[in-house]
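Weekly sync notes, structure subgroup
Attendees: PM, AL, DS (notes)

Item 1: joint prediction request from the bench team. They want all two components modeled as one assembly rather than separately. Inputs as received:
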Amino acid sequence: MDGFLGFVFDLFAVIFRVAVPVFSVLILYKIYSSLRHNRREERPLIMLFDENEQKAVPVLYWENSIGRNRSCDICLPDNTVSREHAVLLRRDNGWSISDNDSKAGVFVNNEKISERTNIYLNDEIRIGSTVLSVKRAEEFEGASRRSWFFRNSGKKSISPKKLLTLISFFFVLVCCDASLTSKALHTGIIDLMPFTYGLITIGLMWATYILTTLIFKRVNFEIESLAFFLTGMGVLISVHQSEKQAIVQLISATVGIILFEFLIKFMEDPDRVGKWSKYIYIASLGLLAINLIFGRTQYGAANWISIGGISVQPSEVVKVGFIFVGSAGLDQLQTKKNLFGFLIFSALCVGALALMGDFGTALIFFITYLLISFMRSGDFKTLFVAVGAAVFASVIVLRFKPYIMDRFSAWGHVFEEPYVWDTGFQQARTLIYCASGGLFGVGLGNGFCKNLFASESDIVIGILCEELGIIVALVLAISIGALVFYARAITTRSRSTFYSISACCAAGLLVIQLSLNIFGATDILPLTGVTFPFISAGGSSMISCWGLMAFIKAADERTYAIRRESLFSSSEE
Amino acid sequence: MKKVLNRSLLTWFLAIAFFIGLGYFVVNLVIHSSEWAQKPMNAHLSVTGLAQAGDIYDRNGVLLATSKDGERYYSNDYSTRLAMLHTVGDDSVNISTALQSVYRTGLTGYNFILGLGLPDSFRSSSDLNTTLDAEACAAAYNAMAERDYKGACVVYNYKTGEVICDVSTPGYDPYDPVTITEGDHTYDGVYIDNVISSTYPPGSTFKLVTAAAAIETIEGSENRLLYCEGSKIIGGEYVTCVEPHGEIDMKEAMAVSCNIYFAELAVELGPEKMTEYANAMGFNKNFKLDANDVAMSRYNVKDADTAGLAWSGVGQYTDMANPLHMAMIASAIANGGTPTEPYILESVNSFFDFKNILAGTHGRNGARMIKSSTAAKLGDMMRYTVSDHYGDSMFGDLHVAAKTGTAEVSDGAEDGWIVGYVTDEGCPLAFAVVIEHGGFGFSSAGPVANAAVAASARAVRGY
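Output from the run, pasted for the record:
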């Protein structure tokens, strides 16, 4: 199109291209600032009064270790107290205490306890020679803990509705950008197809919000908003590549959301999760076994199985199971220090994935294993032993199957002959197209990266940078990367170490996966072919990402706040 | 809980590693963006092509290439178009060293901030100004094409580094690109700019290196007399001359191009000294012409026997030389021992001129090759060669110092060379011409050099 109208079209195209990154930055900021605000101060929940010392001991967490060790949440400097003597914990039905097989035992109102025992106001707990009586928290005067992440400035952060409106508006902007392709600019015919998918995504988002507020009476929606922000981008970048893929993304996102809500409900009682753990253990291994037997080789890795015409990647679902099996409540951590069962589980998972040739996912599982086992045991030795064993195993494998190395031979040389035409082909083009997009991208649908093999999954960063620009690509990457800081900051505000560990490890897993994806595609690491969480095409991956987000959501005590009754304290939420 | 909180710091390491990686990626992208974006595999360039690309001009503002209504246009003059092919390039990126290949993203208006995808109304392509003279290039091209020569011709200003004339043959009309079918050798090397990317056995032009080594190493060697009988056994092998030269000193040996004289000097100097001087004069060394790597000239006598060393001293054995590098040697001799680095890209006119990569890089001096006294002696010899042996009429009214070469190539044919410079005040031109299978350098490369230098002199002096 020429003339004035052509100029107007071009002008709008440029406006949308610049607006998309600007609003993406705004959304990222709003989501995280909302996550940082609206928190209760970390005041003591209840108080224990040390009768011998005549001094009040605040109880800060939902799960507290009691013992002589300085690292215990409630430290009792008493030689008759074991190092890790007992665990004081809060569940929906009230506070209780359990004994960690201590020498001297735990006595509640002068009765020795053998299993987890409920305690009530003014009960007397005897641990060694220390006597603690249970009091209200109001009776304790003292400063509350502060965290760098959370702020209690009193400033109201954005409401969920406003945040969703902002994200909806952003999706409309992206749709406008996707409609004004260079073809549309030349012919004057605007393609409205992207709006179909944009509006469906927006509808799905609002429906989820309304249903969760109505059914679960949940008040906050930041984690879901973040997941929708990412999901929507995944859908919208695929509309010009393959509409079928956009539909698959939307359907699997719906399944993912259902899984997300189910998992949050399922995890409501951390003790229940503990009981189910062994079934998840068996089911996960079963899935991998089925995969190994019936797996189809696709793109060099046999990590797919086909059920009734639908291809699924069981390893994606097993990621969720892996976190379940690995995480545990504090009383379990104290009594079952042996990680042997989890070690076997992890070794089997990693081994199965390596057999399938899916080294990227195997590496994700391995690093997540390190994270979980360290968070459970705090033992650096096991960390080093595991890394050593893995290196040893890799050397052995490479000795017998040296051709595996050929897959990674292009690393660092992707622009050189002959790699630029074979094993470095995708990475070289990813870099070329990343550079072609500039800060604001060439516009959705105008890129060439999308014509490359596996561009919708392994090298999706190329499409992001090329079509939407480096700013949007960074915003999406940072929005996932920053989850780690959130998950860690929320650790002591979780209702159980189960949530703390699972949230940190789920966020960690997502970041490991994201690192392998982005850095693999851009030749900073060898290309292993894993997906960009939420953005890459793939139903199984989408579902598992929503599943993993459930752990992070569950770690926030506010998720279950509405169902909680006031326990001992009148001033709670 | 507290313990778990402390242990969860491990996840921070992951996140921090991730953010460091992300930062590394961004920094890398900023640094390499234009290099990556202009790779020939980039479909934005090969599909969209040069429809929006800026203009390319010669030193006098003569249009060499431009775009109009989505089409790419080249010079109207047939000879200029073909002469400029390897420097300017065609619509494809087959000639990888051409301006339209190397600076394609710049021509099409690429920069890191805006990328490649701006709508047409907002495109800001940039124009390239070159140091070349269209007429000089056309003259050199015609001189080569009418004799059906394959080879390279380069003339540059040894004071400023501006390349005036740069022609590589064979070529083709950018309006009518060749299609090469498998097994068809008609167009072998058609995409290669021989000035930049080729090397040839230097033949007698290498005697300049042997002479420089001898002058600086062996006291009074230039006055040493030798009786040339036309052939002599050195290291068990015959070293022969075209004819017996009789009793000659170095100046005369240079002028008549006596192989025996310089072969004996090479053997006397030994492999270490010869290699040292070859390296000092730019052999086995990387040079650049703007963004392009110049093919490396080679001198390697590590495994040579005495005969091999003798032949290496007269530019045979495994010696290989690049034409542009040989012109730089001539420029060093003209400049008192230090070469000027040549360049073609004068300036880039762009709306968004984010980094002026060219500022301050022009006309730099390279590393000193030889002592200035040596340069003066070699200059005398080269001048004497032209004035007393070829005759000054060969270059019209210009006074030229030169050395020819006739290098045997593997298939028994001979490549013709001439390397030299103009001594006239106000016309500081260094040149090198090589003609594949041209036979005697004097009769094959000579006329091409004459045409190219004469036209370049007009471009520099204005008459």
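Discussion: DSSP finds 18 helices and 14 strands in chain A.
Action: AL to compare against the crosslinking data before next sync.
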